[in-house]
Structure to design on (186 residues):
C-alpha cells in the first residue's frame, strides 16, 4: 500500500505540497492563524484555548504572543511554561518539540521544511521535513533561525540573530552565523 502525501510528510519523506489533503490542512491552519493573530488583546487564557485547537500539544502556562505563523500547527508540541514572543514563525512540516520553560525571543524562525538538493526533484514540487527538538529551559534570542533537523539541548542559550545549522549540546551557548558553540567560562 502506498502512503498518502500527508503520511509521507509526517514520515519525513519527500512529498508534494500541492496534494489536496495537504492544501486543505494548510488552508485550515491559515484560517486558524487569522483568528489567533486577531486575539492579541484577549487574555492569555483565551489565546491558550485557541492554541490547543491547532497545536499538537500545549503545556500548562505556555504562551505565544501574536502574531504567530506556522504551516500546520499540529506538528508543534509546547512544554509547560514555554514562551514565544511576537512574530515567531514555525514551519512545521515535521515535528517541532519545545521543552518546558523554554523562552523564545521575538522574530525567531524555526524551520523543519527542507527541499531536495536535486534540481529535478525541486522543480517537481517535492518538499520534505526534518524535525527540530529544543530542550528544557533553553533561551533563544530574538531573530535567531533554527534550521531543519537541529536538536538544541536542555539549558542551552542561542544568541540573538544566530543561524543554528547543527546540534547544540545541553548547557552550551551558541552564537553567530553559522552558530558556533562558545568555550565554557570557568
Amino acid at each position: 500500500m502506498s502512503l498518502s502525501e500527508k503520511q509521507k510528510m509526517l514520515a519525513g519523506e519527500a512529498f508534494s505540497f500541492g496534494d489536496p489533503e495537504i492544501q486543505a490542512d494548510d488552508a485550515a491552519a491559515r484560517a486558524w492563524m487569522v483568528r489567533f493573530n486577531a486575539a492579541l488583546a484577549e487574555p492569555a487564557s483565551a489565546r491558550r484555548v485557541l492554541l490547543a485547537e491547532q497545536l499538537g500539544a500545549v503545556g500548562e502556562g505556555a504562551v505565544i504572543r501574536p502574531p504567530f505563523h506556522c504551516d500546520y500547527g499540529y506538528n508543534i508540541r509546547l512544554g509547560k511554561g514555554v514562551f514565544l514572543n511576537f512574530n515567531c514563525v514555525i514551519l512545521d512540516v515535521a515535528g517541532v518539540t519545545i521543552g518546558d520553560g523554554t523562552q523564545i525571543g521575538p522574530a525567531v524562525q524555526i524551520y523543519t521544511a527542507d527541499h531536495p538538493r536535486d534540481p529535478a526533484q525541486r522543480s517537481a514540487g517535492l518538499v520534505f521535513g526534518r524535525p527540530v527538538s529544543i530542550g528544557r529551559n533553553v533561551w533563544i534570542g530574538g531573530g535567531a533561525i533554527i534550521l531543519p533537523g537541529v536538536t538544541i539541548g536542555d539549558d542551552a542559550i542561542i544568541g540573538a540573530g544566530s543561524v543554528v545549522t547543527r546540534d547544540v549540546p545541553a548547557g552550551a551557548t551558541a552564537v553567530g552565523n553559522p552558530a558556533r558553540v562558545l568555550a565554557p567560562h570557568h
